[in-house]
Amino acid sequence: MRRNRFKAHPTLVMLVAVVFTALSLAVPAAYATVSRAAKTTATQVLTWTAGDDYTRYASAPTTAVAGPATIVFENSAATGNTTGMPHTLTFDTSNSDYNTDVSLNIQASPSDSNGGRHTAEVTLTPGVYHYFCAMPGHQLMSGELIVTAAPGDDTTAPETSATVSGTKDASGNFVSSATVTVTASDSESGVASIQYSLDNAAFVTYSKPVDVSSVGHHMLAYKATDKAGNTSPVKSVEFTVVAAPPEDKTPPDTSATVSGTKDASGNYVSTATVTVTASDTESGVAKIEYSLDGAAYVAYTAPVGVSSVGRHTFAYRATDKAGNASLVKSVEFTVVAAPPEDRTPPQASASVSGTKNDSGDYVGSATVTVTASDTESGVAKIEYSLDGGPYLQYSAPVVIDRAGSHTFVYRATDKVGNTSTPQSLSLTIVDSKPPADCPETDSHSTVFVGSINTGVPNRVTANGCTINELIEDHRAWDNHGAFVSHVGEIVATLRKEGILDQREAAEIKKAAAQSDIGMPKRGSAGH
């Protein structure tokens, strides 16, 4: 910095001295007392001097020992002040980054009553003090005083730690190299040195992070010594360095699939969804990109839905972490508009075949054939109900071979859920006999259990026998429980076959439990 030199006029020097003498009288009482006599009771003397230079002190201590100290600040002709300019020595108590336990503000001028030399008695503690010149225009006159613990007072070794950094593989090994950073701190006398040993070699001075690039397992031991001679216990970190894998020059493998609802021509109805996959066994996939119908490539993050009607080309590519890009591939597909919503149920019809007598009744048996058609979504299923029973799936013509009058109800449902209005036909079978394996012939219209009428229709089951014929309660039963169990097994089978619904099954089991069939001292009950 360039300084202006001038010879001060005596009157000007006297005026400045008077002004700064007045300023010195205004120094707060909280500052350390400045002794006008050169008394020294401390064990150490720390001296600052100032001269003509207003950018820095002429001299200043950099270190001290904790404890009592005599602060000397001299700004006089003897220290190089030829202009009479006053200076101050101020200890900063406003910055928490520094020690703030010494409040000191000494103003000195060659023309003051002490001839520019002043002293103050203070007590220093370990740490760092920041000092500066408080006079206007003297902000550059500042520095730091490092205070360490007095010899013999510090018996605590430094605190130490180490971290290992670098690029790791999936197993936690460091690829190519590892860097070990050691830190140490000491709040009393301060850290004097840090040392380390790599793989049991001799300890050497640590001055910067240690790079280890040799392949293998390593151990770095470290310790620190403070200025009072205390050495920390030896600590260590272990790590493994592995060689970098061979350079990846192979691009990722890519593929794409198109999904959605197709029509008979293979076109996608309403929307087609394109899913892209990419894999890379070396450096790994970094990104996938796609272009739809020649547009700019954009990042692929999730399956892409395409709903605009027409022919489309979906191009895609992938890049791995080493920068290798795959060849562009593409898939083509066509999206068509969805047909109008199907709200029309199927058309269903039924026909009966068999041998008739003169009265129009079917002799022995009759076969009912049901057909259904749907010109929109198509037929999904046909169902039928015989004599008021639950609807059953129709898969083949139904043979009715039990004597009596029968009602056959049928309906059809298309693929979007539209169900036709149930239609029915009635027919009568004559001269029919039950199958030979039916326990007995029972022509009741409803199911009876003993003398209890359940109200459930006595339907023909899958083997041609009626429900009552399967139950057959005329034979002798060892006990009531055996009969109830027998009925329960039959009902479970008929429920599974769809002959009975849940309510009907419950009614029959309830009647079996309430009947007296199988009770002691009673014979089998008849219908």
TrEMBL record:
Ranges for domain Blue (type 1) copper: 77-147
Keywords per UniProt: Copper, Electron transport, Metal-binding, Signal, Transport
A molecular function (GO) term: copper ion binding
InterPro entries the record matches: BlueCu_1, BlueCu_1_BS, Cupredoxin, Ig-like_bact, Ig-like_fold, Ig-like_OmpL47-like
Stretches with biased composition (Polar residues): 252-264, 346-357
Ig-like domain boundaries: 151-240, 255-334
Listed Gene3D superfamilies: 3.30.1920.20, Cupredoxins - blue copper proteins (2.60.40.420), Immunoglobulins (2.60.40.10)
Region of interest: Disordered: 245-264, 339-361
Keyword Protein biosynthesis (UniProt): no
Signal peptide: 1-32
Protein name (record): Copper-binding protein
Species annotation: Streptomyces colonosanans
